[in-house]
Design goal:
The complex is a heterodimer of chains A (about 200) and B (about 575).
Chain A lengths: L16 H29 L6 E3 L2 E3 L8 H26 L3 H31 L8 H28 L5 H4 L1 H31 L1
Antiparallel strand pairs in A: 1-2
Chain B lengths: L15 H6 L4 H31 L24 H37 L7 H20 L25 H29 L12 H32 L11 E2 L2 E2 L8 H35 L6 H14 L15 H28 L9 H24 L1 H7 L3 H31 L5 H27 L22 H14 L1 H14 L14 H4 L40
Antiparallel strand pairs in B: 1-2
Helix pairs in contact in B: 2-3, 2-4, 2-14, 3-4, 3-5, 3-6, 3-7, 3-12, 4-5, 5-6, 6-7, 6-8, 7-9, 7-10, 7-12, 8-9, 9-10, 10-12, 10-13, 12-13, 13-14, 13-15
Classes of the chains: A mainly alpha (about 200), B mainly alpha (about 575).
Amino acid sequence: MQIPYTVEARPDTGVNNAKLGVWLFLASEIMLFGGLFSAYIFLRVGSPEWPGDILGHTYTSASEILNVPLAFVNTIVLIASSVTIVLSWAALAMGNFKKYRIYMGLTVLAGFGFLIIKAIEYSDKFSHGYLPAENNFLGIYFVMTGLHALHVIGGMIVNGYFLGPGAKMWKSDPKRFMSRIEVAGLYWHFVDLVWIFLFPTIYLI
Amino acid sequence: MSDHDHDGHAHHQESFVRKYIFSTDHKVIGIQYGLTSLLFLLIGFSLMMLMRWQLAFPGEALPLIGSLFSDSTMPDGVMQPEFYNQLGAMHGTIMVFLGIVPLAVGAFGNYIVPLQIGAPDMAFPKLNMASYWVFFVGGLIMLSSFWLPAGAAKAGWTSYPPLADIETTGQTMWLFGMIFLITSSLLGAVNFLTTIIQLRAPGMTLWRMPFFVWAQLVTSFLLLLAFPPLEAAGVLQLFDRLVGTSFFLPSGLVVSGELLDVAGGGSPLLWQHLFWFLAHPEVYVLILPAMGIVAEIVANNTRKPLWGYRVMVYSVIFLGFMSFIVWAHHMFITGMGTALSGFFQITTMIISIPSVIILSALFLSLWGASLRFTTPMLFALAFLPMFGLGGLTGLPLGLAPTDIPLHDTMYVIGHFHYVVAPGTILALFAGIYYWYPKATGRMLNEPLGKIHFWGSAISMNFIFFPMLIQGLAGVSRRLYDGGASYEFAQDVIHYNETMSIAAWVLGLFQLPFIFNFFWSIWKGKKVENDNPWDATTLEWTATTSPPLGHGNFETAPTVYRGPYEYSVPGHDTDFYPQDQP
């Protein structure tokens, strides 16, 4: 039993199964984060002040609480990783497996960098007693960035697999392997894109 | 894909576990979904049969089985209010998320869709297996919550905060269970969509797909896009319960005479919006596959093409889109303002149009036909007026002025049960009787099927019609004593006994079905050929009944014609299968 169009594209739809599947999955992910963004707007519109009272101090802008420069650095890190994962795919397209390893390695490394910076931000909040239960701004901040961080971790696991044990497929079925890297790349771009929306929404405006 | 099985035969050696438990074959997974969800339907129905005792005979000890329950639920057989609330919340949850959706989509979708489009399997077989097992774990979590010290969730299947936020641990289990069920649905939806779009056999253009496949396609889109916001809402409610945030808790909330110690500033309405953004499309997830099944059976038993197949397809697509912008008609009494109410009233009236078109097309398909009154056809025929009644009783609920007095009354319960019980569930039974020979190679027993049909269809009406009457009299849907302590309800509470007896009779009439279902596996009449209903669609004509093992088709089918070419003039039989040139 052979399932058709696992690697080559179906002529009338122009895509293979995996690519269509990941696009559909991303559509549902958009609805997931869309739900949370809607919740953010709903809570914000309903509050007299935003971010509001935290531990007896009234804040009127998120940048007084959150570390904007760190988050900016994180934005750069993620965008850079989106570039490296494209380069890793391009390296495969040119048949250069060594280069692929370097760029995919950089992508995973950038994921770690992002998480480390995020951890610094979180621990700074926690150490000052800025916990999610204190205020709805902090609550939604932790939920949204936390869920995004989980998506980063998920992507790193996938990318790490294709860097390590999954890379064996390059020898046995290079076309399928390339398709997998492309799909992983689409997901990684999405994770990047979510952050690009999260950063201004939560930190800046 | 190993080399030795490319001929499509089931001859490769698979261990029992790989073949029947952790199988990646869509047919086995479909049967797994089917058996599990039928079991859940029975469990969910049993919860309701218990509740109906309390409603008919409030405060009286349940005879015979009452002593089997623990002291915290039914001491001396008398149902406690807390237990009643658990039964109510879990009845809704189990019936919707663990019974009907997995049966309509997981079982029928999985088993039939790949066969009908001529595909060797689903596009992602492993994902398909994962989807079933994630669903299974979610179901176990839901059921196990009954054994928590304070019992299962009690805040209704809608889990409205603030109540749900301050509920006992059963609610946390409910949320975890839901996250599993949502994940399972998402995996399934991606798989169905990819399968239908990518794996259609040569010649199976979109306009040659059976209506059932169209219905499943739209259903999968709804699952894909409507469920994630509920997942987001579930995560927020989990944070409220476990971390102490106040997303759904307003400032100054007083519980049991004491100010709740939370930051406040949240909004219970936020939950309602996120919940109904899922749960309204969910209503169409419940009904569209049922319409698909009925369309298949009506075409087959009228021996005519469906009347207005294309219009039906356009309608089902339009329904899918519209179902995303009607959710707040569940929220007219929240005070969201006349402008918003106006918008949602208009969209709600608009969405009734495609439903009416589909129903009318199915009715018109009967015109001038010499009907074959087979058991599946009886169920399908009963679906038409029953769903019609469900739909019509919904109109007053879609308009704010009439919804406000009816909101949260038994009328609402009567309305949506007409849609899902004598509507969807009868259609699902129709599907079981129709496709059973496909899965087993044997027919279900017809006389037993007819007993099952008449008993179910009649008793269901005795359960649900009095609900409409009680609701119009103003009886609330959430009364532990069924209205006995309310002056205004005295004229209509005698219906409670009628309804309860009808519910138990309905339970009795499921016994012939359960017996038939298992007995026919071994003793049922063997099908004389692979196409016992003389059908045109691929699942009957291009493959054997029951189908081969992993792989479905001996040779990949090619499709030459539309799905319902019955009684084609000049053709030697009254059906012209899709794969015949």
